[in-house]
Amino acid sequence: MKDIYVLGIESSCDETSSAIVKNGREVLSNVINSQIAIHEQFGGVVPEIASRNHTEAISKVVKESLNKAQISMEQIDVISCTYGPGLVGALLVGVSYAKALSYALKKPLVATNHIHGHIAANYISHPDLEPPFLCLIISGGHTHLVHIKTYTEFEILGKTRDDAVGEAFDKVARVIGLGYPGGPKVDKLAKEGKLNIELPKTHFDNLDFSFSGIKTAVINLHHKNPNINKADLCSSFEKVVTEELLQNTLKAAKSLKIDKIALAGGVSANTYIRNEFLKLQNKGYKIYYPEPVLCTDNAAMIASSAYYKYLKGEKTDLSLNAVPNLKINE
Ligand code: KG4
Ligand code: ZN
Fold it and tell me: Residue 168's domain spans which residues?
């Protein structure tokens, strides 16, 4: 079969990224222009500022991805972009740019769901991984337990009823004074802490999650006792969150008789969560997670996801629009 080169564009939140991926799995370049430093001073992503910075960065980022991959625009087979979920103004920058490229170069356009991209990051890091498998998507905006039936068919088994895991990490970090984005900072500090603080754990009969209770408990403890050991707070927080993630994932794996479990999304870069999931290997499960740079937002994962949609004939036309609330099975 002829090699297929996909150019991917990601702009759903605060990273402007462009990547060239060969045959869905081989990354030739993955340029990520992060706006973290810009949003840090506001304690979170400011949508208007994000859109403006995407507009300024997109051309440079796309050109750099082609240069790094040592490939010309004409050699690209497919143009792809994230069209949702995400911030509408941010998404529109990537969508418009991808549409313009597709029109000008007469190349097929494939639009991808950002969450499908996070899942596909695992195909890049694990060339042997194929569906079916379970995927726990844990990011700043999402917490979903999904049955990946095929490369393009997804069934949601459980989701958060309130905060996403990353949101809880970021909020806890902000309140105890660690700054933004909080996830990596909590991860680092937790390594020095002891698991000695009692925190509430949620349990539902189905496979849903909830993280607002534990987030509020941590914040209240800190407010009542500002001298409380922050490292202990972080490690106790991580422990309870991880138990909840593990409990539902295992329940789903047992009932569906699936032994392959993948993690995806920014929070899957967390060291404690990764190590706790790795322990499941002793029980016969195979555990997958992307390398850290592919856990957080990037365009290589978008190009990989788009490759599989392209193989299925899922092309789009210039009527494509951004869909900020796009669902996983759309
Ligand atoms: O996937 P992502 O880049 O963006 C979304 O699609 O939401 O995820 C960003 C989230 C942030 O909440 C960030 O704090 C969290 O991932 N994160 C982490 C770690 N690295 C990033 N959370 C915990 N531990 C980490 N090491
Ligand atoms: Zn993301």
Answer: 131-290
